[in-house]
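Morning F.,

Quick status update on the modeling queue. The single chain you submitted on Monday has been processed. Sequence for confirmation:
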Amino acid sequence: MNIFGHRFLILSVIRTCFIIVLFMVATGCNGKSSAKDKDFVGDVEVSKKLKLENLKASNHDKPQSSVPVIDLIADINFRYHRDGWTFNTHAAQITVDKLIAGNVRALFAAIGNSDGKNRTFKDELKLLSDLVLKSDGKVVFAKSLHELENFRKGDPVKLFILVEGASMLEKATEDELFEYKSKGLSIVGLAGGGSSSLCSSAEFVNDSDNGLTKKGSAFVDKLAKLGIAIDLSRASKKTFYDVISDNGLLAMVSHSAAGFLREHNRNLDDLQILTLKQNGGIIGIVFNPDFLTPGNQNVDYRDVIKHLRHLKRLGAIDAIAIGSDFDGIIPPRGLEDVSTFPFLKDKLLEGGFSNDEINSIFYRNIQTFFKNVAERNSIADISGNEAVRPAEVDCDTVSGEFKGSPGEACNGYIFDNGVTLLSSSRLKLRVHSQLELNYLEIYGLPRTPWQIEAQNLNGDIALHRSVRLDESGVARISLPKNNRIVRIFISPTRPTQLREAVIWGKTSIDQTMDRSEK
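Structure tokens below.
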């Protein structure tokens, strides 16, 4: 081989070695099997594993950049009357820029006489129209509740109208109400600052609680017929149950909170919240510090989350909505205006709420509710059941041992810890309400077994069965029809906690007729 042949051979060897070195570097080879080599059984197995993990993980728990928000109440007119705020006032809690930053897609603007001035609906509508006109097309009146169903990027904020205090509209004819509806009227709050010829109010403890009057009953029937939602904010407890349970109407509470966490005459107790849930209603959690915690001191976003978490614990996640009341409150820290909804979303995720639950709270529950209102659905249409209300009961232990007060776990609040019952305990519930009883619900520890026995007026056993609470710690037991139940006995088959026992029923025809004659 001549010198040129040797050179060619040497160069070929060098080139081959160089290629091998490049390959080893590129593949991570260092004389041992690389991690990439080991996983390469390969990319196929890794891919399968990732797909399996993705299937197990809920899509709802993946991060979302933003969530659409529907807010059930905004005091735009009130703040204009008091401070001259508009959609372009920098100090306002609701401005065009802040609405866009918060991804607020729909807003219910409150019209009323909360400042004591006797303005008409048309006066207030004219003012709101002027404010909308000055938003440069960024805020527009909605013409139909169906506009809540779909949101497109870049669309203006849809504005609907909520009347606080039906006295502003009680003399309006059906044709006038229909005209107002075409201009955005979507919600009418039945009660105002005090009791009226329509109903009693929760505003003042000294108000006589006559509930819904005959005139009020006719008025809410007219609203339902037109597809206008009934708001029970400010309404007394008896008015609340008269509208939902006796009239069987879909109803909402636009801005309130959990009475379990903050005793306030306008907050709802647990049974009212459960009644809304059972009957297709929603409650907008308000951001007003006075509704959230006693004393109004050091209130921040965490207090709002506490109320949301309480309703979630009740199993009422599908009844929760946002009813901030921005522009009508001094807001809690962290939730200073409508631009802070993405911050609230992030904090809810950190607090254990799933994206699916946040979507329900921020917009989906409202969409579902107003879809039913727009279609003039009744409670029976959406649930397959007649309207129900909790029966009045008292209870005590018949036998066995317990810790805590059994009376507190009947017809009251659903406690965090509940009443501890041993397996020998037998709890008796005595029914006082003259209702046609439908079913019993037990709230306790998930998957725990219970024994149920129901007796009629003669002491005969009308029902005897075993139940196991579901994954959320709830069991529903249907009660026999046409059999006057007056006592129900419940007992666990092992030591456990009872958080609440609620008997649900419907008002008899005679009682409804008696009330409607008022």
